[in-house]
Amino acid sequence: MQGLALVEQIRRFAMPEGVIECRGTWLRQRGEMRFARDRPWLPFEAEQWFEGSGIDFRWHACVRIAPFVSARVVDSFLQGRGELTARVLGIIPVARSSGPATDRGEALRGLAELPWRPFVFGDAKSFTWEMAGPNNLHATFDDGRTRASCDFEVDNEGQVLGGVAAARPRTVGKLVVDTPWSGVFREYQVFDGLRVPTMAEAIWDLPDGPFTYWRGQVTDLRALR
Description:
mainly beta; outer membrane lipoprotein receptor (LolB), chain A; 12% helix; globular
């Protein structure tokens, strides 16, 4: 019951005008990402679509990798399958990832980004909620095909602040290594009746210290009715 009480607190904070029934959300983002500590930050602009009853998502980004040169990146988890593709100038393939490790990694991203579709917190099918400590919610998604779990740090108001901690597959050379991974959410605003974080960061917790590799700002968000 404690887990459900914390979920209800999140819902009340995230939907200040009352419960919203919708089939998903769409958002627009801008930000920057990098591939190593000694590599430059690469600016991006993106759109993202979230399915409203599970963890499926599609992230379409344009990443500037050099003056006058950009890459089109698609990151997704759809119907139990994860995929990442990147094409320079939208034509030349430079990266593609799929398979079981990618499925696990993208499923975890879809679960960790629930604050951008906060109406899923509650009685949504395939989700279970448990207390993992004071103001800490352990979320599990399991639809019989995909299973993913992570922890959310929640303040007394119901804001998900971060601590989206879990082990996520990370490519290291030719190997895939499960690596501690976390996120941070902050600066909540109301869009279309939903109070959501507008700033976020994604972090690999490496042996030599935390490595922030992605940070973004939401500039618009809509509930898809």
